[in-house]
Amino acid sequence: MIELLAPVGSKEALIAAVESGADAVYLAGKMFGARAYAANFTHDELKESIEFAHMRGVSVDVAVNTMVDNSEFEELAEYLRFLYEIGADAIIVQDLGVAKLAKEIVPQLPLHASTQMTVHNLEGVKMLGDMGFQRVVLSRELSMEEIQYVCKNTNIEIEVFIHGALCICYSGQCLMSGMIGGRSGNRGRCAQPCRLPYTLVDRENHDLLKDIDVGDYLLSPKDLNTIDFIPELIEAGVTSFKIEGRMKRPEYVAVVVDTYRRAIDSYLINKESMVTSDKDKKNLAQIFNRDFTTAYMKGKPGRFMMSDRRPNNRGVLVGRVVRYDAKSKQVTIKLVEDVSIDDIVEFWVKIGGRVNCTIKEMSVNQSKVEHAKANQEVTFEIPAPVRDNDRVFKVFDANLMERARKFFTNGAPIRRIPVDIKIFARIGQPLRIEMRDADGFYSQAQTDFIAEKALKRPLTIESIKKQIERLGTTVFEIREFDCDIKDEVMVPVSEMNEARRIAVDLLEKARLAKYQRSVISKDAKFLRNKLKVNRKKHVKKPNLVVNIDQIDKLEAAVDHGADIIMFGGESFQHENITAEHYKTAYEIVKQKGKKIIFNTPRLLKKWQMESFKKLLMGFKEFDLYAVSVANIATIEIVKEILQVPIHADSYLNIYNNFTMEFLSELGVKSVTLSPELNFGQIEKLIRNENLETECIVQGQLALMVSEYCTMGSYLGNLDKGKCSQPCKKNKYWLLDRKEEKFPLVTDQFCRMHLLNGKELSMLPHVARFEEIGIDRIRIEAKYYTKERIAKLTNLYRELIDLGENHPLLLNDKMDYIEGVDITRGHYFRGVL
After folding, report:
1. Is 763 within 8 Å of 795 (Cβ atoms)?
2. Mean pLDDT value across residues 19-37
3. Which of 241, 247, 716, 810 is the most exposed place for a label (fewest CB within 10 A)?
4. What 3-state DSSP class applies to 12?
5. Using an 8 Å Cβ cutoff, are 736 and 726 in contact?
6. What is the average pLDDT across 183-201?
């Protein structure tokens, strides 16, 4: 099965997607969807939309792909029941807690794992399959080879993004929008900080790219376009070809779906070749582009993956300025592409930014024209000055938009279902209509009127067909028409029309009948029992955890009061962490009588897997407090190799009790809670949980992790095949428009981590964690020097031991110690 899956953010986009050839659509209601700022659908609109799609044989996947707070689960339960009852074909989920709830109350509703789950290896796909997921949406960072490998080795349906906007961070791993603006991408409210301007600087704020021809949008990727890779993806075994764009206008949906529909069909018809015209490719660019990339499908393209000059639609180059007359405000451009009246063009002015203009009147050789062709010189009026040789881009193509709108504004369906109709007419009997559509669904209806002998004009095949073929705005069209008439009979036209209407209505009901589901019990008692407090509030001193990546830092932490060391995983120094490093770390910690958790990489691509499993084998000789994992796949890998407690890190987005219960059932013994939770949420959560809980209290948190590296792309010649690794020679920051500096580090796997410019500090509030019963508090220390680690570890140790009696608190000196460039994270504000 090959499925073309289209994005739908509005009713018009739904019609556009269905009529232009989508096999399936994905959309969301007004809640729990990762595109909260799309129009989305009310309950009534969801029901109508699903019926509309199902009537036409199109599946509907509903996005329920945000993290969910405990307080929202009763509403979520009702919503899931509703989606099941109205016939949703699947739900797309990010939150493991949502998956757990769905399996309990709507077990027959198929589960699709969102790309927000960060599934990027075969092991993750298999594990989700074992959990009951029918389909997995792979991370967009996979290569064609990795996609082929996953498809070849699993029976789970694989969905891959083929077109549209890209996130620069691994989806589901981005905290940037929430941390700097309070709008969490994990809650569906991403403010897209990646589309803002940044400057790559060193410690002294020197612009390191000022002598390089590069724009300011260093985190803004081009749009994905894989039209030329469709044959490879089909042969790889991909089930669903997903177009991004629930925030896009319906014209965009129509053009992109129509283009990919014809490309897929042409290849399936003739696998020797796939037909895609230059016009099709230009239309894809014209409808919306930030320029195009194939992302990581064929390697790491470095700077050539980035739309660093423009973070929004750039249109299509149509020509350059030949001359501008300031007095008349007339500009003449030499065209390389056609333009028409009502097109909108944009001039990229060397000085002064952009000049936009809607062409209302234009001339060629002083003659007014409606349409001007490539290679002609065309003249029209513009509102602001431009210069010779400025580039001109068409950002709105009036003719293309008009054609696109026909997919959803015609009223009558474009995509119709063939139906065979047979008419029986006999004197003394009702006229009977039988209908059978191309999918085998059947209906029949008859007139109330008993056919009589005709006195003047008996019924003929032509006269009957004239009435019956009036299918109008229904989804059906006649394929075969058979009329069995005996003798000269008469039936009133109105009776035939009514019988036709009833037959069509019954055929529609027959088509929808297979999607009907029974009503589910709405008793929420079991849900309330799950969320009620089941352990008493307890006050105890939390253990102090320090997360580090180097031995000298480990020694500083142990010597200054850490109870538990978390060691390994990614190195923020771009250094390999070897088995020998783990052994040394273990010996030092054990010698000091402390506990140690071995950390594992946050991301594990196929090329890492063999060495990672070998590393785990070496862990068998150690008596570990736990092994920390950051991805769903790693849980199963660790369980297969080691008999050791498993710690689930915050990157698993642990936001509610259902997620914690889910992880507990997988064998997890302790968790780091999501840094997007506030104190109120945390207190309610941990009082309903028996897992050991940990909160991050200190450090410059990683806001993004990416296969893209700014330093390697612009300073290291990554696009030429081998990076010169400038990250080993200097330290780097991204400076934003508000003068905030975000540290950049690369790990030993050449992934870039963007850290928060402000340092999380909860020094004055250590007692609060003790009061609400947190078991462990953690310092994220990989970016710190060993001297800084020693100082902070000692401070937290004293604050845990002395509590409110610490001299810094008694003398109100904490501000002096912390400095001004700090944040309390979300502990007091939470996220939207």
Report:
1. yes
2. 93
3. 810
4. helix
5. no
6. 96
| Residues 6+ away with beta carbon under 8 Å from 603 | 118, 120, 170, 630, 631, 705, 749, 751
The per-residue b/e assignment along 781-808, b for 16 or more CB within 10 angstroms, e otherwise, is bbbbebeebbebbbbbbbbbeeeeebeb
Cβ-Cβ contacts under 8 Å for 786 (sequence gap 6 or more): 550, 552, 553, 555, 556
Segments in 391-434 forming alpha helices (H): 398-409
Type of residue at 146 = E
How far apart (Å, rounded) are the C-alpha atoms in residues 476 and 452? 30
Between CA 224 and CA 294 the distance in angstroms is 6
The gap from C-alpha 44 to its chain's centroid, in whole angstroms, comes to 25
The torsion angles phi and psi of 510, rounded to 5 degrees, stand at -65, -40
pLDDT value at position 47? 97
Q: Which 3-state string (H, E, C) describes 635-700?
A: HHHHHHHCCCCEEECHHHCCCCHHHHHHHHHCCEEEEECCCCCCHHHHHHHHCCCCCEEEEEEEEC
What SS3 string covers 482-495? Answer: EEEECCCEECCHHH
pLDDT above 70 as % of the chain: 98
The predicted pLDDT at position 534 comes to 59
Give the chain's largest Cα–Cα span: 111
Tokens 């100082």 correspond to 791
How far is residue 600 from each of residues 192, 234, 637, 639, 783, measured CA to CA in Å? Answer: 29, 34, 11, 13, 17
Half-sphere exposure of 327 (CA within 13 A, CB side): 0
Q: How many angstroms separate the CA atoms of 105 and 80, rounded?
A: 8
Phi, psi of 369 (to 5 degrees): -135, 155
Amino acid 536: pLDDT: 52
Q: What does DSSP say about strands 543-548 and 776-780: parallel, antiparallel, or unpaired?
A: parallel
Tens-digit pLDDT profile for residues 258-315: 999 999 999 999 988 888 899 999 999 999 999 999 999 999 999 999 999 999 999 9
Tokens of 304: 């050539």
823: left (phi over 0), alpha (psi -120 to 50) or beta: beta
Residue 594 is classified by DSSP as -
Q: Which residues contact 1 (CB under 8 A, 6 or more apart)?
A: 239
Tokens standing for residue 387: 């210069």
d(CA 323, CA 734): 39
Residue 810 amino acid letter: L
Q: Quote the radius of gyration of the chain (alpha carbons, Å).
A: 31
Q: Which of 110, 96, 230, 94 has its CA nearest to residue 170?
A: 94
Q: How confident is the model at residue 524 (pLDDT cuts 50, 70, 90)?
A: low
For residue 529, name the pLDDT band (cuts at 50, 70, 90). low
pTM: 0.95
Q: In one letter, which amino acid is 582?
A: Y
Q: Which pLDDT value is given to residue 37?
A: 83
* Total Cβ atoms within 10 A of residue 575: 13
**DSSP code of residue 306:** B
Residue 521's nearest CA partner among 89, 81, 109 is 81
